[in-house]
Amino acid sequence: xxxxxxxxxxxxxxxxxxxxxxxxxxxxxxxxxxxxxxxxxxxxxxxxxxxxxxxxxxxxxxxxxxxxxxxxxxxxxxxxxxxxxxxxxxxxxxxxxxxxxxxxxxxxxxxxxxxxxxxxxxxxxxxxxxxxxxxxxxxxxxxxxxxxxxxxxxxxxxxxxxxxxxxxxxxxxxxxxxxxxxxxxxxxxxxxxxxxxxxxx
Length: 201
Prior knowledge:
This protein is α+β, with helices and mostly antiparallel strands. The chain is 51% helix and 22% strand. It contains ten helices and eight strands. Helix 5 packs across helix 6.
């Protein structure tokens, strides 16, 4: 037990997790040790799947290192819906919360180092720790706000406006994600994306 506690306190992956959790709530050392004890380390190789369509998402993930993409397959065409990279949370969250099968795939674009917590464990933490319940509320609010912004962007913005917004919000994503996936995410052809990338620096 003491060895596990020492690992949690010193391991960089757990330090990073705590930093991200405390953007939403504050935890005492005792609360953190309890909460973090339910997270386990795991890894994905490049092109390996975290989740596939038809599965129920039973895990909530923290990405310490690496890049993942969320996409749907529509008549053989891959429609990219989002990306996760270093120091962010991941997983097919709608399926995780509803415990119903997802229509999405989550695939590793690079090798990934992660932590994960099971549905049962996170629900238990919501019930037992007020600070973690607060984390859940604040995280859900962020998800809803981001979804609303994404819908506005996809319906109202021109291709150039979408590209500029991507650059302003996540300039480093061009070095992390293949161009064809970014083009799909923005709802444009790879040719249009290439033209905008050459035009806008």
